[in-house]
Amino acid sequence: MSDCFQEVVAAQAPERTRPNLTAFIVCLGCVVVLLDISIVNVALHPIAAGLGGNLSDLQWIVDAYTVAFASFLLSAGTAGDRYGNKQVFAGGFVLFTIASMVCGAATSMAALIGARVVQGIGAALIIPCSLTLLNHAYDDPVQRTKAFGWWAGSGGASVAAGPVIGGLLVHSFGWRSIFFVNLPIGLAALILTARYIQNEKARPGQRIDLPGQIVSLFALAALITVLIEGAHWGWASPRILGLTAGFLFLSVLFVAVERKQSVPMLPLTLFRSTQFTVATLLGLLLSFSFYGLIFTLSLYFQQVCQFTPLQTGIAFLPVTGLLTIMNIFAGKLGAKRGMCFPIASGFIVASIGFFWLSFATSDGVGYGTLLLPLLCVGAGVPLILPPVTTVVLASVDRSRVGLASATLNTGRQVGAAAGVAVLGSLLSAAPSIVTGFRWGMIISGVIYVVGTAVAIRHIPAKVD
Q1: Residue 386 falls inside a structural domain
Q2: What residues make up the domain containing 144?
Q3: How much is the pTM?
Q4: Among 72, 95, 347, 388, whose Cα sits 20 to 30 Å from the Cα of 104?
């Protein structure tokens, strides 16, 4: 009888006996969310040809997702606590999957961009809850640590593989396939989530900072609109001046709102720590130049070098392929030499790559000329993020680690959206794509030089 009872209990609670399956499910969520940040870049030229969009439309295809992702990331963790992380995680997949279907079926730029916003909201619901679910799946701290490593590694690998996978899909099935491929993944994740992920007790007392959420969303949307549309509408046009004033007003209002909230979305006390503030800023600078490069380099490859989407994806391998390898090396280097050394080294090496690209690009240049500077960027960028994350998490109390991590990721997404907006606008404002790309690389190099100086000045060698 006891054996039969144990079998019944096991059948009723498979999630407790299969933590690795929970890890697989949440890693799947991480993969599909981060894959959609990089996979879309190689499809931009075919999308423009199919739907008739201009450069600012292409920027919005990328930034609509990133802005929504960044805006809702902080509130999503609170929503998971309030309504249950399993439920919010599953709800995020529902939104993401439905929006992916709409993206793939879109017949206009407006429909595609609108669906990308919903995709970004779904992505924001998935990521924070995935970490919490992973944390609760393991009783053994050692196994839990390994699972977090799988989660981080799957995210890095998806960003690295995105351009190649996107190139293969576009080459074989057309640009709509990069969105339709999310449908079977989303359905599988929903079925597995319902069957195997453990239910948690919701905490209804947790409050969502709705005023802060609304104000931050409109502030960020106003900023990105100014950066994307400024060159098209005119920097002195009434719309741009009005949006700029709106952004400044909303930014001040956000600070005022957060100071008055009993449970703010973004506790401003976090920024009393110099290490936290500086590391978050470095994460923003890192993403600004890197994701701006991914966006503009994709257009450069396809419009100047006349690469196909598949060739473009393969051409990104020197940059993205080094991400996974160097991320591992960065962790070991930080443990051996301290946090400042890999951060500063990464900014220096990547800045050399950016400046080199600004001089190497021209209408008739071959890919071989671009290879070495791309390798510099690919080697430098992954040296920065792991130690920056370590500094952020070490600068706060353990009770605020999740919030600190979400704040860092929000800053990175804001930086990515701004990078795509600014560097993309340079392409349209300059006399040619080559000239705009060169200026973008110079700006990126200068930003990384600033990052180097800030890291050397404020990041300690050792963190507690």
Answers
A1: yes
A2: 12-208
A3: 0.87
A4: 72
